[in-house]
Structures are given as structure tokens and as C-alpha cells.
Amino acid sequence: MVTVEKFEICLRRIASMRSSCFIYVALLISLLKLAPSSSFYLPGSYMHTYPQGQTISPKVNSLTSFETEIPFDYYSLPYCPPEGGIKKSAENLGELLMGDRIDNSPYQFRVNVNESLYLCTTNPLSEEEVKLLKQRTHDLYQVNMILDNLPVRRSTEQNGVTFYWTGFPVGYTPLRSNEDYIINHLKFTVFYHEYEGGGVGIIDTGEEGMGVITETEKNTMSGFEIVGFEVVPCSVKRNLAAMSKLKMYSKVDPVNCPLEPDKSQVIREKERISFTYEVVFVKSDIRWPSRWDAYLKMEGAKVHWFSIMNSLMVIVFLAGIVFVIFLRTVRRDLTRYEELDKESQAQMNEELSGWKLVVGDVFREPNFSKLLCVMVGDGVQITGMAVVTIVFAALGFMSPASRGMLLTGMIVLYQFLGIVSGYVGVRLWRTIKGGSEGWRSVSWSISCFFPGIAFLVLCILNFMLWGSKSTGALPISLFFTLLSLWFCISVPLTLLGGFLGTRAEHIQLPARTNQIPREIPARKYPSWLLVVGAGTLPFGTLFIELFFILSSIWLGRFYYVFGFLLVVLLLLVIVCAEVSVILTYMHLCVEDWQWWWKAFFASGSVAVYVFLYSINYLVFQLRSLSGPVSAMLYLGYSLIMALAIMLSTGAIGFLVSFYFVHYLFSSVKID
């Protein structure tokens, strides 16, 4: 006897879920439009005010290059050391993983005092120092400085359009010249705003610790707020006889940046280089809460909106197909089947083909069932980490002002979400096997599968960076920290989640499995061809935002449109679910009951296109990337990213497909 009541309940639930998703998308888009009007400011570190004449000093970060993507220590070049010696700043986990190494610098500014000062003159350059300076110049290395948590930036003008870049070059090579010149004179401009109080609530998320500025504190604070930090780099050939008589921080005359090569400081053996700098303080109308706007200025907003509209069109198209499958094809078949008597049903079973004939095989244990449970568990963990991280970032709690916080938050969230991955993986294992035997092995595998692969790739890349003496190489202490987080937090929580999975309510399968597997009819084309091709639809939702993410990672651009990213992530989840359901139904209709892995890779195959797009980005956008170490570094991180996307999207597609198959066959009662 066949009934459709359960199936109709399923249809109503799915329709409700689909409409809810569209409502959430509309709400998020509305929030994106309303967000700029809010006076409650979240991003940034604790506000500092400085009295007139107070000495402040910028810090220096690692030297970076878009040519090599391999960072080096600032003091690996013959720059002037600070008077009290080089002191390392405390760095969080995310900063260390990104290769940041922040040190103090010899540069000193007196607040609201314009001056031009001398730093030092180097010893005659050795052959090794000249070679290193020339190499860093040819590789377009940038010096990165930070003042009051703001990175220094410089401007360049091309065709009447002004472009801003963070950092300034180590040196430069003029056109049609064989000589290299070092940047040895810096003209700093510090923009300040006189503190006036006001009613802006500020939550700190920076390196100085969490805190809220109260009205009482606002009334007692006075002085100058730093709201901008810019530099004009110059190369100036100094009079060594005059410079040798000066001490550090002696006053020198301001200079105009020369354009003539004979007035610039050449990089040559036995040359002595004098370093000087100027600082000018300029009053600005920019308030402290808005000082990051210049760095986080959103460009290409229309492109982001186009990406979202494109994804919505894909969703509507796929939703139409799912609607046809649910409300017309499947329900019509069930209604016809219900109207027949038992004898007619038996005859119809012999004549009809499709999903109704695989009821005795549809829940048969798939090949490599343990690996499937492990990958689904890890995928759920990565998805949860991505969703929570992007939500917090969209709310402003993980801003670029808090260096390394985004990566640190992702790692911490991943560790604690091990309990969810263990629960999901072990519960799926119990459903497939019909019992809890072997759940510990599944839990251990879940906790070690993705982290183990990522850790192995990081170790290989780290050996390459060690060989290059790069600050991007992880220190041994950080390896032990990561291992401690892994085995002291993630593994125990995954085992705990697995234990809870054994105690959860057992998922009752709606159909018994036959002893003898049903033969799958031969097909004209491989079924996996359709599965791999299905990944193009989720990729169409993702690829525009992927371009901006890759640019922020490899081209040093700030990525802060997390509101758009949150919407794209939601749309990606919907597309993955719809694609997997459609392909699962198509395979069942041709009597292919081996749907488990196909449902996983129907959406998980998007990782193939993500990795291919990463290679395309390397070839066409990072054409200047030089050296095998740089290429291996890029491909290694791209591989980890593609694997994470495969596990996440695959888990989404599989779980929705399992839900669909379970409800589909629970609507058919077998006598």
C-alpha cells in the first residue's frame, strides 16, 4: 500500500525552507544597504589620543613582494637600527601564520611638530649587501610600517587617477638604466584630528585588548587622534662629510625628491648610505572611527551586486527544476501508484523503471563508507567555521585593524567545532552500519583527515621557506602550539562529539535492503561526467567573489565586503543543495542506486573548478610571480583551499540529498 501524506509534508517543509532562504537573502541585502548609516562603530583598536609634543614611533613589519610572495625581516637589509636595540612586538597566532614580524623602528615623531631629522650613515656596503639590496629591488619588495595601528600608504597617479598602495619600495631601477637606487629619505605625512568628544560608541577589537569607551572616559581624554599615515619615498645622495658630523635625530634641511639619477643614492659596493626623514602633521576633518575608510573603500560594488544577482538567477532556475520534480513528476507517480490495486501494482513494477524499482537497494552501504563519514564530518566542521567567521566579520569583530584576528578566529572556531563533526560523522556511520561498532576509529579519522593533510602541506612549504630564510617560515614553537591545539582541543572534542553521536536517536531507514544487489543498467556515458559537470553551477555563484579573495591574499589588498560574502555563502549553500538533489533524482530515475558518493561530489566537484581558477589566476594575474618556491607556495595554499571547499560543499550536498532520499522513500510503504 502506498500513501502520499508523508511526501506532501516533505513538500511543504521544502517549500517553506526555500521561501525562508529567499527571505533571509532579502534581509541580508537590506542590511547591506543600511549598514553604512549606523553610528555604532565596531572595527579598529582602542582609541589613543596624544598630547602636543609627545614622542611616538612607527613600527616596521616584514618586507613583502607581489613578485615572490616570500616575506623577509626588515632588518635583513642594512637599515638603521633603533637606539635601544631591536625589540619584537607580541604577535598573535594569525600574524605568525601570515608571516608578519613586527619590530620597533628608529623613526620618532613628536606629535604636531614638523621636523626633518637625520638617522644614520651605514658602513661601506659589502658585496653581499649590495647583491641583497639589488635582489630585493628587482623583486619589488615593499617596506611596511605601522603608526597607531594604521599601515603607511603612498599614492601614485596614472592618467589622472590617483592610486593608493600600502608600503613603499626598497629601491627602484629607472627605465633604460643599469643602476639601482635605494630609498633613503622618507617624507611622512601624519593626519590628525583634534579630539572633540561625541556620542560614538566604540568597541575595541584590536591588539590592545577588548574594551568600550564610556562617556566619562571621553570627557577626560584630550589631545590629537591619528587618522592617517602617508609617505613619499625618495632617493637622495647626501654629502657624506656633512652627514658624518651629525648624531641620530640631528636636524637636517628638508629636500625635494630629486628626479635626476645623479642626485639619487645609487646601490653600489663601498657606497655609504645616509638615511634621513621628514614628518609633517596635517589637520584633518576625518574622525577616528572613520580613519580606516580610506583603506577599506569598497571598489567594484556593482560587480558584487552582479555576482549576487547572477547567483539568484541560478537559484531560481534550479528551484524551478526541483519544483517540477517534486510537484509534478514524483507526486504524479505516487498518485498513480496509490490508485492501483495490488495486482496492478505488481504489474506496474514490472513495466515501470525509475526510482521506484531501487527501493531495495537505495540504502545499501556505499563503497568506502568510513571515508564518506569522515569527509562529511570534516565538511560540516569547515562549513560551521566559515559561517560563524563570516557572520562575525560582517558585524565588524574581525577587522583589518586587528591584524591576524580573522585567521586566529578561524583556527579557534575550527578546533571547537570538532564536537559537531564527530557527532555528524558517527551518526551517519551508525545509520549506514546499523550499529555503533567502530565509532572511535571514525572519530579519530575525522579529527585527523583534513588537519593532517593541511599540516603535511604546511610542513613541506615551511621547509621551502626555511631554505629561503623567510619570515613566512613558521617557528618551531608555533608548530608545537598548533599540534597542542590539534591534539588537546580538536581531537578530544571530536571524540566527545562521536560519543554523543552514539547516544543520539537512531535514524530509521524507510526501506529494507535486499540481499542481492540490483544490476545497474548500462549507460551510454559515464555517470561521473555529469557529476563533475554539475560543479560549474556552484562555481558560477562563487567565482566573482573568489577573484576578490585571491586578490586580497596575494596582491595585498584589503578585503572587507563580508556582507556580500555572507550573502554569496548563503546562495552557494542553496545552489549546492539544489544541484545535489537534482542529480540524485536523475541517477535514481535510471535505476542507479549508488547515489551516495555522487551526491557528495555533485556539489563538491566545484573544488576542481576552484583549483583550476587558481591556476588561471596564477598565470594571468600573477604573471610576475617568480621562482619555484613562490609558485609552490601559491599552489600549496590553493590546494588546501580547494580541499576545504570540496569537503564543505560536498557535505552540504550529501546531507540534503540524504534528507531528500529518506523522505522520498518513506512515502512508499513496502508490504
From TrEMBL:
Q: What are the UniProt keywords, alphabetically?
A: Endosome, Membrane, Signal, Transmembrane, Transmembrane helix
Q: How does it sit in the membrane?
A: Multi-pass membrane protein
Q: Does the keyword Cell inner membrane apply?
A: no
Q: Where in the cell is it found?
A: Endosome membrane; Golgi apparatus membrane
Question: Transmembrane residues, as ranges?
Answer: 21-42, 305-327, 371-398, 404-429, 441-466, 478-500, 528-554, 560-583, 595-615, 635-661
- Which Pfam families does the protein's record reference? EMP70
Could you mention a single GO BP entry for this protein? Answer: protein localization to membrane
Q: Does the keyword Signal apply?
A: yes
- What is the predominant subcellular site recorded for this chain? membrane
Annotated GO CC locations: endosome membrane; Golgi membrane
Which family does the similarity line name? Belongs to the nonaspanin (TM9SF) (TC 9.A.2) family.
**Under which name does UniProt file this protein?**
Transmembrane 9 superfamily member
